[in-house]
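Researcher: I need the complex structure. Ligand is uridine-5'-diphosphate. Inputs:
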Amino acid sequence: MSVNRVAFISFHACPLAAPGVGKAGGMNVYVRQLAAALGGLGVAVDVFTRKHPDAASFIEEAGPLVRVVHLPGGGDDVAMEGLFDHLPCFLDAVADFCSDEGLTYDAVHSHYWMSGWVGQRLARRMGAPHAVTFHTMALIKMQARAGESEIQERQQVERELIADADRVVAFSPHERDSMVRLYGGDAERITLAPCGVDLSRFQPLERSEARLRLGLNGEKVLLFVGRMEELKGLDLLVHTAAQMEPGDGMRVLVVGGDDGKQGEGERIRRLAHDLKVEDIFDFVGRVDQAELPVYYSAADVCVVPSFYESFGLAALESMACGTPVVASRVGGLSTVVQHGRTGYLKSWRCPEAFANSVEMILSSKALQDSMGDAARLRAQDMSWERVAERMLAIYEHEQAGHPQ
Ligand code: UDP
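Model: Output:
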């Protein structure tokens, strides 16, 4: 037996969507990169996702052996909160597609709880093993930030999946432990598999050249990369900048889009104005991933002030570009960033501590360079190819133990 063909269920996160704004972020990147890397190992991957207006066609080739299949799962006007009701229709559409095409899969891998609901049922119908990666979980998010509200069904579905899926994939020890503690998960059935980074894309560029391209001169440059939403903790970055004494000038580049719905961009701009640091902030908006290495390479420090990150791809991308990271000591960031080696991990919500760490790096070129080198070296071990090999081993293990 071997694993030749895998179905990914990525109900609301199309791997072809441009990340960095609204709901499109790390999960979309993860699904696209993991599918591509599995394709590179000779495993065919069909990614099933809900139809959306930007989809170029019903089936899109997304690289060697990878197809993205867009199927009905609620109209364009359905908000995230209403999507749960459309899962049965999406499940039927996937099952019909498979039976029309005569397709079966050696494993089903779901991404996020709603996909898990679909994947669990599809896998049982096909007699295939089911692996689920949650990406984020309701109870962990709610613990990380007071005021996070969640769709009513989410916790229950997550609990069922933790109990019923053949394999649960966790990005970090923190996530695995939380699954056990908060959801009563069985640690034996949870496998740790961190995310990866595209090492061919995220490479250090000459800092001076990168700065020139961004119109920067000799300023100290702090960088944030991520969707503008409250969980990203951008207010902490503004407070941090306000604590600092920039000396010969400082710029804070905020890369990532604001979907306008949450009003986070506006809230952060207002805060920067109130704290009198708006002049040093540059809200760049969403940037294509192909351009991001220029930003990471131009920066002295990348700041990741999130309330919570299940992994934190932006931190790893920065490290791959040789730029140290100062991040909240939460979730997957505690695994990605090595405190004192590749950057600093700081207690949550503490601008003084963030400012001290950033200033420490900015004040010593030797420290910045050695952290940058260590960061780049660490990222070298975290390619998507590695992640795909690990995931393939998981599928094979589950296939071997699965009743056919
Ligand atoms: N990203 C991007 N353009 C932007 C901002 C972000 O392509 O303007 C990408 C970034 O490269 C990263 C992903 O979006 O791969 C964000 O992932 P992360 O894990 O940092 O955060 P999440 O979106 O999962 O909360």
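Model: Summary of the prediction. The first strand starts at residue 5 and ends at 9.
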